[in-house]
Design brief:
261 residues, alpha/beta, Rossmann fold, six-stranded mixed sheet, four-stranded antiparallel sheet, binds adenosine-5'-triphosphate, binds magnesium ion
Length: 261
């Protein structure tokens, strides 16, 4: 791994609790994420990992706790506001427009940054045309970066699953995020696709300096690429530290071995 410089705390999750009726999806969870790090969230199925990301990006409203992003504290994040603050995410179940081309899917990631109004855009007139060109150039750069040039015009639904996941990453990157939340970006992939995705995640982190919060089940991937790891189990935090520390934590070991704890 490169000798990157981990910075200040950029995202601070404080005492988050989230209930769905009688189900406690998250119980008093606190952890922080530092600038430029790859912060993994791991845990068995139903541990609350996706719910945690959904609290961070404003999809779920936790009953307790708060989240501080770049010094601003929120009780409830609001999805649009979070995106504007520079947080993007990919989804465990892809959220792409399957009938639309790769380019057009990536352009949806630029929506937030498109300033001119729809009428001017429709007329492709003056500033709107210039703006559209700029956005297209940004999207083309991401396409090159992710090595999907050959599929630029292909409807996303026709691509193999591994490439669809890559397009989903591209859509998130098109938002030029400071923090990228990735929910199982390698799930369902074969070994080669996983290796590619790992490389892209590392390159995004390295080349763009993007801070990454990564949910991943594959332990070898987590141990290889993350700087620090949070472990959730039944909505509780049972471990937090470097990959080595977490691997040696008895609570983590028993959660993964399925013994009572
Ligand atoms: N919208 C919802 N309504 C009701 N219960 C929910 C909802 N979202 C999550 N839960 C519940 O919260 C708990 C945590 O779910 P979550 O999806 O966060 O787990 P996870 O760690 O992401 O699991 P997996 O590894 O299977 O993706 C589960 O018991 C789940 O059934
Ligand atoms: Mg999940």
């Amino acid at each position: 791994m490169s000798k990157k410089k981990i910075g200040e705390v950029i995202l601070d999750v404080q005492n988050i609790s989230l209930r769905f009726g009688g189900v406690k999806a998250l119980s008093d969870i606190s952890f922080d994420v530092r600038e430029h790090e790859i912060r993994a969230i791991i845990g068995p199925n139903g541990a609350g990992k996706s719910s945690m990301l959904n609290c961070i990006n404003g999809v779920y409203k936790p009953q307790e706790g708060s989240i501080t992003f770049r010094g601003q504290t929120f009780k409830h994040m609001n999805s649009r506001q979070v995106a504007e603050l520079g947080v993007a995410r990919t989804f465990q179940n892809l959220a792409l427009f399957k009938g639309m081309s790769v380019i057009d899917n990536l352009m949806t990631g630029r929506n937030l940054r498109i300033k001119s109004n729809l009428l001017l855009q429709a007329l492709r007139w003056g500033p709107a045309e210039r703006e559209e060109t700029e956005h297209r150039e940004k999207v083309e750069r991401i396409i090159d970066f992710l090595e999907i040039q050959a599929h630029r015009k292909t409807p996303v639904g026709q691509l193999p699953y591994g490439l669809q996941k890559r397009v989903d990453l591209g859509r998130a990157l098109a938002m030029e995020p400071q923090v990228l939340l990735l929910d199982e970006p390698m799930a369902g992939m074969n070994v080669e696709e996983k290796q590619d995705m790992c490389r892209f995640v590392l390159d995004v982190n390295d080349e763009f300096g993007t801070t990454i919060v990564l949910i991943e089940h594959d332990m070898s991937v987590v141990m290889d690429i993350s700087d620090r790891v949070v472990v959730l189990d039944y909505g509780k935090k049972i471990g937090d530290g470097s990959p080595g520390e977490v691997r040696a934590n008895p609570d983590v070991i028993s959660a993964y071995l399925g013994t009572s704890h």
